[in-house]
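Regression test case RT-17, inverse folding.

Input:
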């Protein structure tokens, strides 16, 4: 039986992937934010953030952002809960957005020390994950959030 070069390459790639036992992670989508909200991974009421707020808060170049969704706690005096999914034009922009998310969480930790110390455990357990051109930032219940994110995969 003859196997073409392309078919052989695909077969070898499939075998190598299976041998590693790792699945390629799927990129995040804006629907994932709603799935996390529906999973009860956050401690209070959340409100969707619209407009240029996301580019302003994260210091992102709006031209590199192809889509996004962001929800934040309605009562920021007691909660730093947030879920943001950023979809970017390329991996360089995604890398910059990941760094911006880390900077935001660090800034939130410093700010909350004085006015919302109860939010510190949630911030210290924040999840920031980049897959391809997408970035997820989630600050919520440290016990429920990891399970909810695992449910996305």
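Golden output:
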């Amino acid at each position: 039986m003859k196997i073409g070069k392309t078919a052989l390459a695909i077969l070898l790639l499939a075998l190598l992937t299976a041998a590693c036992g790792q699945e390629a992670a799927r990129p995040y989508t804006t629907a994932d934010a709603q799935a996390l909200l529906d999973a009860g991974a956050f401690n209070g009421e959340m409100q969707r953030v619209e407009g240029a707020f996301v580019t302003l808060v994260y210091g992102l170049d709006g031209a590199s952002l192809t889509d996004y969704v962001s929800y934040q706690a309605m009562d920021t005096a007691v909660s730093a809960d947030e879920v943001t999914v950023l979809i970017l034009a390329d991996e360089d922009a995604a890398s910059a957005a990941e760094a911006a998310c880390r900077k935001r969480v660090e800034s939130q930790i410093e700010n909350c020390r004085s006015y919302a110390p109860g939010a510190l455990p949630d911030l210290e357990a924040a999840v920031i994950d980049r897959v391809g051109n997408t970035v997820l930032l989630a600050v919520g219940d440290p016990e429920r959030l990891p399970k909810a994110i695992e449910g996305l995969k």
